[in-house]
Request: fold
Amino acid sequence: MPVVRLFPNAVKEAKKLMARAVSAGDICIDATCGNGHDTVFLAQLVGETGKVYAFDIQQEALACTRSRLAAENLARRVELIEAGHEELLAHVHEEVSGVMFNLGYLPGGDKEVITQPETTVRALEAARSLLRPLGLITVVIYTGHPGGREEAAAVEQWAAGLPQGGWDVARLTFPNRQHHPPYLLAIQRREVD
Reply:
């Protein structure tokens, strides 16, 4: 058996976990579609009978995601929504298996447009209310930009307040890496609250 790098980065770890929580036919949310990588990944996981809701406030992000989906012939599986992730409940009305958040700013885009602590926490709470038992929320958190540490603190506080009897929360960090590497929070709803 070949030896592999076990922890390459937070985004890849989020995808590994999500692949274990989502099956064909499921419904998922990409709360911050950005350049579309997570949206494509989720669309592949849910298969032809599943659905992905993908949110972003920037038309540039939605256009990039639309293009990636078209290139992979996955567009029919995804509903692109030009709205902030805090508006999940206005657009999603069914139980979901997985929700992915990739916080910060759009890579290659305007670095002044960033996710905000207040709206992110509202979005997390909305995602929590939609999550099925054993469903998963992944949050990739970036602290190296202005506002990133404040958002991380708000997300951590929200996650720490989830009741232990109904939720499992895990954090994967990289303390020996330089330049504020992103880290992962993974939140799974237990079978019984």
User: Anything to note?
Assistant: The mean pLDDT is 94.
